[in-house]
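Input set for joint prediction.
Command: fold jointly, output tokens.
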Amino acid sequence: MRTVFGLDVRSLAVGRILLGLTFLADILARVMNAS
Amino acid sequence: MNMKAHYTDAGVFPRGEMIARFVPRQHASLFFVNGSTWFAALLFAVGALAALAFAAGYRTRLAAAVAWVLAVSMQARSPIIGDAGDVALRLLLFWGLFASMSEVWSIDAWRPRARRPRRVHLSAGCIGLMVQMASIFFFASLLKSGKEWHGEMSAVYFALHLDAFATDLGIWLRQFEGLGKVLTVSTMILEGVVVWLLFSPWWNGPLRTLVVVLFVGLHASFGLTMALGVLLFIMAAGWLMLLPEWFWEKLARRLPVLAIPEASAGPEPWNPRNTLQLLGLFLVAYTLTLNVCELNAARFDAAAPRGWATPGFILRLDQRWDMFAPCPLKDDGWYLIPGKLKSGEEVDLATGGGVVFHEKPEDVAAHYRTQRRRKYLLNLWAADHSGYRVHFARYLCRSWNDAHSGGETLESFDLVFMREVTPPMGHPFSCLVRGICGRLG
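tokens >
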């Protein structure tokens, strides 16, 4: 269970940073030139 | 077109019409509260701050919750411009609520803590993130039921011939039909078989690393050959979250800055009896049933308990991974919007008032300018979305006449979709159909 489903905290951090920045970029795109 | 076009009452679909005709009643949105531009701007500002706080790891769980609410709100307000990346974004944020996302490399981690961080974290959120990423691709492989994926192996050929999406590299690569067949088979093997290696109890570290590298590579190849917006980055974020401890420890031998020397070995003690974790585990199982049911929606509707899918719609766990399924589109095209001005002059509203060119644009993908605009206009052509067309026409007319007067006032225009059909492999292109979506005047 722990071997298969455990996640490294550094992986979660990298994913969090990329996901947050992507969402930020997406919001800016929706505001500036959404369609 | 900008924020005003898709999120305000002055845009392409006023709230009343959206709620009444186009949005399932379970889909809530803060944008339904008020239709003014200042309110939309306020919500986007809150969303941007939440996204920034989430990335920085500042009050991370609260930031994830706010970001999720805003993401869900944006998607419910204008579903016609959404894509698979949007669905993945809201789901990753949701499962992130049940995991510790800020143990390291975050502002939250700088605060004094009672316990030392551990390298490996186990929670319902981790299980949710892993099962979600695997579900996206495994269920996508099951929904790819067309002969283009299983018989003639022409799926990549058709996908790369969608000029509305193809990049220069994609256009160049599509001449190699044999390579297209290899890539079609490879995609099916990756999505249907290789993805299961994530859950291997043996050699989990190397195998999980291999899966992450292969899928990030798959998305990079999609991103290099097709214009798909932020999909690549959202999927990459989801996959990078799954990199195992084995990968980081190998890397830390060469880059000691990546090591966590003070960490205790092994995963932190997990208490599955915690109410939040129990709820998370239940939702993981529930979401799996939703995915299974999407394989045969008609049969499920008859067999499932009444209202079974309703919580999924409310929490926006609803998902259907039918990218290029059951087969890729075999037609696409571009728009001409010839408008007649009061002076008698004809202008193309699709290009903001330029001369009307009836020839195919040199770069069809660039003709759409942005991914959201591409999704909107291509969906507008689909019969399912024909109800949106009159609102788009009214919006175009309003926008033009607000900025022009006298002889430049718009009197009438056509909304014309120049549809190009991709022939089967080995056949010449010959079919170009001019389809009129609507006429206003």
